[in-house]
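Form 7-S
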Amino acid sequence: MTRVGNVFGGGDSLSLSNGGTDVFLDVLTLSVSDLAHDTWDYRFAALLTLQDQNVMGRGAVGFDLEEIDWGATPAARARAKDFVVRVVGLALRRHRWDELGYEPPFAEGYLRRFRAMVEAFDPADAVHRDGGGFPGPGEAAVASCVPHRVLSALPYWDGCRFCQSAAGQKP
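Output:
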């Protein structure tokens, strides 16, 4: 699928401006970094870390729920979906937002919409493609940025999304 702009979701999607995308991913990164503890969790975290517009380019990120490898069994799919819902729920509780250095006024709306999309999504409908956009087990985000206490995309790039933004590339 070819994307124009930043789109998250699938059939029902969340289309965000570049600034909205940064905010959405900032607050999700804080939450996923504190909740991840299983291989699949770290794979989902890697998916989020790879959406950094400072590296990938403005307007060139996003993912579809249908392309995520949710798991091979109904139990694995339910657990993965529950994890994503918990990550969004933690972000909705403004987890670590005081560390952002800015007030994200629209983040709650983005998160509510994304959570509703995930809750309505049936992971059995996912179309897992080898080489697709969802990181494999060997690509899981296990590196942590010490200064920001979040998972990062090392070894793909030099720092986490907050390090990249501190380099002056984020508005």
